[in-house]
Amino acid sequence: MSKKILVVNTGGTIAMSVDDTEGVKPLDDQAVTKNLPFLERYADVTMKNFLNLPSPHMTPKIMNELRLQIEEAFRQEHYDGVVITHGTDTLEETAYFLDLTLSVDVPIVVTGAMRSSNELGADGPVNLISSVRTAADPASMNKGVLVVFNDEIHAACHVTKTHTSNVATFQSPQYGPIGTIAKKSVQYHHAPLVREHYTIAHADGNVPLIKAVAGMDPSWLQFLLDQPIDGLVIEAFGLGNLPPAIIPTLQQLLDRGTPIVLVSRCYNGQVQDVYDYEGGGRKLKDMGIIFSNGLNGQKARIKLIVALQRTRDFAELQKLFAQ
User: Fold this and answer.
1) What is the tens place of the pLDDT at every residue in 123-142?
2) Beta 16-18 vs 24-26: how paired, if at all?
3) Which of 49, 111, 44, 30 is nearest to 79 (CA)?
C-alpha cells in the first residue's frame, strides 16, 4: 500500500525561475506541484501551498505558523510523512525550529534547491523525489526533522549551509550526514542520540545574535541596554572567549535578568569554560553566561526563543543548552 505524504511548499529557489535578465524570481504557487507526476511513483502525495516566500523573508513567527498548519493538517487526515520545500538561506533555522516544537510523530523532511527550476542541472526535482522517498521510508521514524539535499540525509540539529551556490551546500560539521539515498534504497548509519521537544504558544521572542571580533568597541553593544530584548546569543572566539572591553555591558544585561547564550564562531567543536583570564570562558560561566553544546549561532537563537517559554531561570536554561 502506497504511503501518504504531505508536501508543503513555502517557496525559495525550488519555486523560482531565471528570467531573461538572469534574475531569479518566484514563480506562481504551482511551481512545485508540476513535479507531482514524478512523486506519485513513490507515494500518494498531497500538495499544499502554504507560502511562496524567498527564505530571507522567513521569520520565527512564520515558522510557528507553518508548525500549526502541519499539526492542523494531521488533525484532519493521517499522513505517513511530511516534506517541506524551503529556501536554502534560512532552511536550517526552520528545520531546527520544527525539530524542537512540532508534535507530529512521522518523518519530517525539509528540502529545497540551489538552482532554480529552469536552470540547467536544476537540483530541485531530484531533491524533492529523494525527500518523498525518505519521508515514506519506515527507517526515517524517530530521527527528528531531517534535511535532504544532494542524496544525503542530515539531522536538523547538526546541518548548516556551507557554500553560497554549490548543490552540496548542506553539511553537518563534526557529524556528517546520518544517511544517504541510493537508487533503490534509503540507508541510515547513525542518528542523534538526544531528542528535545518544547510546547510553545508563539515564537515572538526578541533575541539578537552578535559575533565577537578582535577589538570590539563596547558601544556596539550598549544600545542593547535600551532595547526590550528577551535574550542574547553571542558567537565567541574559539572555546568560548570574548574581548574584555564588552564584559561590563554583558554584566549589565545579566543583572537585568537577560539570559546570554554563548556559542563558538568556529565551525567545529563547542564552547567550554577553560580559560581563566578576563573575558575567558571560565569567568564568563561564573558570571552566569549560558554555554551551548555545539549549536551554531542561528540555531542557538532559535532554541533560546523556544526555551524561554519553558523557563527564564539561568540554571535551568544552562541544563537545556547542555543537552
Assistant:
1) 888 999 999 999 999 999 99
2) antiparallel
3) 44
User: What is the rounded CA–CA span in Å between residue 195 and residue 162?
Assistant: 24
To the question of whether residue 55 is assigned a binding role by annotation, the answer is yes
End-to-end Cα, the chain, rounded Å: 39
Q: What CA–CA distance (Å, rounded) separates 229 from 231?
A: 6
Residue in 226, 294, 291 with CA at minimum distance from that of residue 260: 291
Residue 88 is labelled as binding a ligand: yes
Domain boundaries, the chain: 4-188, 209-322
Is the pLDDT at 29 greater than 60, yes or no?
Answer: no
- Per residue in 293-305, pLDDT tens? 999 999 999 999 9
pTM of the predicted protein model: 0.95
- Give me the sign of the Cα torsion angle 58, 59, 65, 68: positive
Q: Across residues 154-182, what is the average pLDDT?
A: 97
- Give the architecture-level CATH label for domain 4-188: 3-Layer(aba) Sandwich (3.40)
The helix/strand/coil state of 169 is coil
28 is in an annotated binding site: no
Coarse DSSP helix, strand, coil percentages of the chain, rounded to the nearest 5 percent: 30, 20, 50
**Residues 272-291: pLDDT tens digits?**
999 999 999 999 999 999 99
**CATH code of the region 209-322:** 3.40.50.40
The catalytic residue positions are 13, 88
